[in-house]
């Protein structure tokens, strides 16, 4: 199973099948010791118990999902978002996660001002960074595909994410590069190389883009079932100096309907053959 050291399972891939503890047990059955959980899964288990499970099984966490959602219609809402992000940092620190992944948030309710939403994200990240640095938790801005700009993230390209990281400044902030969200991006190779020079590649997420895509949120493809050139993408990531695990993150009504062990077995087979 040594070849699986480079494979991580984002537990969103199994969220409809198992609890956190059950998903951990299943991953271990398949020889997988690297994961990325979500905060709601941790909350359902309890942070102390989840941390115990992580330590008892010698698990490595490529990240914790997610912080972010900074934009809000008023100062009170933005303050609540910042407080929640500080709690997310503390959870990531307790779990020993490599980073806290940021889904930054879209337009505040009633707004059509996308530049202002992006300013709120930048301000929120800047306000969060002293706490994150003190806790030793890197912050990974995850750009999301433009189809999510209104409701999930107004940061929609790797170039934007890196510009924002540079604008915030200092150590401990970079990007989570998810093939699903940036495979289309013009100049992607240059931006991945730039991220490497910045030391800003904090995570690498994989799945595939199906044609047609039947649901913009819950129809991601299993690796090899779509149009993304995953080996070429990985080659760019490694040329930029990142040799961490490839983290499978699949939101899919189809794969959520399948037995969890089948999903994991398929992830392992595809990781070995098409990634």
Name the features.
275 residues, alpha/beta, 9-stranded parallel β-sheet, 11 helices, 9 strands, 13% strand, globular
State the end-to-end CA separation: 16 Å
Estimate percent helicity. 40-55%
Sheet with most strands? 9 strands, parallel
> How are the strands ordered across the major sheet?
3-2-1-9-8-7-6-5-4
* Overall pLDDT metric: 97
Radius of gyration equals 18 Å
Order of helices and strands: EHEHHEEHEHEHEHHEHEHH
SS-derived structural category: alpha/beta
Structure, described:
By secondary structure, the chain is α/β, with parallel strands linked by helices. The chain has 11 helices and 9 strands. The two termini are 16 Å apart. Strands 3-2-1-9-8-7-6-5-4 form a 9-stranded parallel sheet.
Q: How would you summarize what this structure contains?
A:
With about 280 residues, the protein is α/β, with parallel strands linked by helices. Helices cover about 45% and strands about 15% of the residues.
Write the layout of secondary structure elements.
Blueprint: E1 7-10, H1 20-29, E2 34-36, H2 39-45, H3 47-56, E3 60-61, E4 64-68, H4 75-95, E5 100-103, H5 114-135, E6 139-141, H6 158-168, E7 173-178, H7 179-182, H8 188-198, E8 201-206, H9 230-239, E9 246-248, H10 253-256, H11 260-274
Parallel strand pairs: 1-2, 1-9, 2-3, 4-5, 5-6, 6-7, 7-8, 8-9
Helix pairs in contact: 2-3, 4-5, 5-6
